[in-house]
Write a structure and sequence with these properties.
Length: 161
């Protein structure tokens, strides 16, 4: 571990290696806490940024991997999981189930196994970028790799309008 590397990044690097993630974790000079910040820092489209969002679906914690260009339609999430109520998990719950703080939650390597939906919007990109445990660390991946490694269910989760 380098002196500047946060323990959460080291934890994610280990999980990434165990999972067989191909992309290398890189450190950014500017923060990549939000999709807009990450896209600007990386020089990519905001749609190429993976937002890893934790929700409560009828009391069960679930994960939605959505494109930075989209907001999540919780009605579509409820339909996908066949539940009646979906709401965003708070920061404490997110850290509890993922092992990471909001702003650095990676799409894989969490402490709790959750059902996962992945935004079909990612299909149009050859490369997408996700957080690697900290707002200054990201890694490149592909839609196909995330589906394969996470077991995520491809779904239209975008809020229209």
């Amino acid at each position: 571990m380098s002196q500047s590397e946060h323990p959460s990044v080291t934890k994610f690097r280990k999980a990434a290696q165990e999972l067989g993630i191909k992309g290398e974790v890189i450190q950014t000079q500017e923060t990549a806490r939000t999709a807009d910040e990450a896209a600007a820092t990386l020089g990519v489209q905001v749609g190429q940024i993976v937002k890893s969002l934790v929700f409560e679906a009828d009391g069960e914690t679930v994960l939605v991997l959505t494109s930075g260009e989209n907001k999540v339609d919780t009605n579509k999430v409820a339909l996908a999981f066949n539940v009646s109520k979906v709401g965003k998990a708070d920061a404490d719950k997110t850290r509890e189930v993922t092992g990471y703080a909001i702003g650095g939650v990676p799409p894989l390597g969490h402490v709790t196994k959750m059902k996962i939906l992945i935004d079909e919007t990612f299909k149009k990109f050859d490369e997408i970028w996700a957080a690697a445990g900290h707002p200054h660390f990201v890694f490149p991946t592909t839609y196909e790799e995330l589906v394969r490694l996470s077991g995520a269910i491809p779904t239209d989760v975008a809020l229209k309008g």
